[in-house]
Amino acid sequence: MARPISSGTISFGLVSIPVNLYSATEASSAVSFNLLHAGCGSRLKQQYVCQRDGQIVSRDQMVKGYEFAKDQYVTFTPAELKAMEEKATQTIEIAEFVPVDRIDPVYFDKPYYLGPEKGGEKAYRLLAQAMQETNRAAIARYAARGKQYIVMLRAADGAQGGVGIVMQTLLYSDEIRPFSEVPIADATVKESELALAKQLVGQIAVETFNPGDYKDEVRARIQADIQRKVEGQEIATSEPVQEPARVIDLMEALKASLGARDKNAHAGGTPAPGGIATRKPATRVAPATDKTVEKSDKIAKPDARKRSARS
């Protein structure tokens, strides 16, 4: 049974719903390596060194400061830092309800499960079902751990007894870079290319995302290699995988992708997540230039003449 990590109160109009917060994720068991002394194999210890005099500084000699100008700092005592923190009210104050699909996932940060405290079960169910049936999510303010958060509350299936509430902390607008900063050159997509692309999408489309279909194969391979080293074996190294040849013609790349999937399906290829047959890595498409377009036209014209001659 999950244990709450904190408690709070959802403020919904004049209704207050006492809730407990539960972590929705587990700490990743990522493989980490330690830095050792190559000579004796002992762990290395991190130290802080003063940039001016090169002396090692212990923690009791450290203070926190803010750089307000180049190499100019104003320092703060622990009491001053504590006074500047946001007071933790533990209140999740709903400001508005918006359609769920209008919230861009780029703002999503960390998810938490909310569960009702004793006495708040009915109000909790009421809010959850109201959001589910209206297909809306609540945007709220939440102060905790010395900081003010903007959060989203949404209805979610899978809770005990039916629908529950997930709280997702959101990033502020000034924490998101505008997509307009990403350079994307202009390009014209032909209807024939779009039709083939849609056909390729349709071949591997599924109606439900099942996260259990995807495993961290790299982590499993690294852990297996580590176990071999622990047992005194050597890790076999392999040559770098060569990149597939680039295809200039986008149409040919799309047709080849469709053909490869059809061929694999008829050959009884092993289904991948979502019932997709496995295949070789997709052919990469190089960016087209004026010269490559001219070359593609020159290649295509003789084929057209041959077809007309046969007809």
Structure in words:
This protein is α+β, with helices and mostly antiparallel strands. Among the domains are: 6-24 and 85-172, Ku70, Chain: A, Domain 2, CATH 2.40.290; 245-311, no CATH class. It has helices at 78-84, 121-134, 191-203, 217-230, 250-266, 290-310, and strands at residues 6-12, 15-23, 48-49, 56-57, 64-69, 72-76, 91-99, 108-116, 136-144, 147-159, 162-170, 271-272, 276-277. A hairpin with a 2-residue loop joins strand 1 (6-12) and strand 2. It is extended and about 70 Å long. The termini are far apart. Residues 270-311 have low confidence and may be disordered.
Within the CATH hierarchy, at the fold level, what is the topology of the domain at 6-24 and 85-172?
A: Ku70, Chain: A, Domain 2
What's the helical proportion of residues?
25-40%
The count of β-strands is 13
Largest sheet: 7 strands, mixed, barrel
CATH architecture label of the domain at 6-24 and 85-172: Beta Barrel
DSSP summary: helix tally: 6
Overall body shape: extended
List the helices and strands and how they pair.
Blueprint: E1 6-12, E2 15-23, E3 48-49, E4 56-57, E5 64-69, E6 72-76, H1 78-84, E7 91-99, E8 108-116, H2 121-134, E9 136-144, E10 147-159, E11 162-170, H3 191-203, H4 217-230, H5 250-266, E12 271-272, E13 276-277, H6 290-310
Parallel strand pairs: 1-7
Antiparallel strand pairs: 1-2, 2-8, 3-4, 5-6, 7-9, 8-11, 9-10, 10-11, 12-13
